[in-house]
Amino acid sequence: MGGSGLARGARIFLGLCAAATLAIGIHMARPWGDTGAYQGAKDYLVLAAMLLWALFPLGALALATHIFRNSPRARAVLCIGAIGIGLAGMAAYVDVAFVHRDAQGGLAFVSVPVLQWIGTLGLLAVCTVLQRLRRPVA
């Protein structure tokens, strides 16, 4: 799979992760009326803001796959790292939603994006270093 194919695959995977994040977040929040938590539009805006916060790292990773076109090594590392970060986030969300259900499970939608941002910034730093390294002339 070429560099652009790997980037396309990473973007598709991150899109699937984003859709699953939305579905799990809505499932955990249960905004359809069986709880008394959602009394007005303000409550739904808070839910929307939390879900957007959870999606930001995935969107940033998807946009970052367009970077590093001049360095196939850096682009490959970025795409593989992006898939790993998305997969780790999905594992955390599935764990708190379905495996180890807890009243504080919704806090994962605060902490997981922070960890994903840290991973994203570290990954971008590594890829920047890889891009600046010159291959030795053989």
Describe this structure in words.
- With 138 residues, this protein is mainly alpha-helical.
- 75% of the residues lie in helices and 0% in strands.
- The chain has four helices and no strands.
- It has helices at 3-29, 41-64, 72-99, 108-132.
- Helix 2 (41-64) runs antiparallel to helix 3 (72-99), helix 2 runs parallel beside helix 4 and helix 3 (72-99) packs antiparallel against helix 4.
- The mean pLDDT is 86.
- Count of discrete alpha- or pi-helical segments spanning 4 or more residues: 4
Which blocks of ≥5 consecutive residues have pLDDT under 50? none
| Strand tally | 0
Largest sheet: none
Overall mean pLDDT score?
86
Net shape: elongated
End-to-end separation in angstroms reads: 25 Å
Q: In which range does the helix fraction lie?
A: over 70%
Secondary structure class reads mainly alpha
The radius of gyration over CA amounts to: 18 Å
User: Order of helices and strands, N to C?
Assistant: HHHH
Strand content: under 5%
Briefly, what is this?
The chain is 75% helix and 0% strand.
Q: What is this structure's SSE topology?
A:
Blueprint: H1 3-29, H2 41-64, H3 72-99, H4 108-132
Short key terms for the protein model shown above:
138 residues; mainly alpha; 75% helix
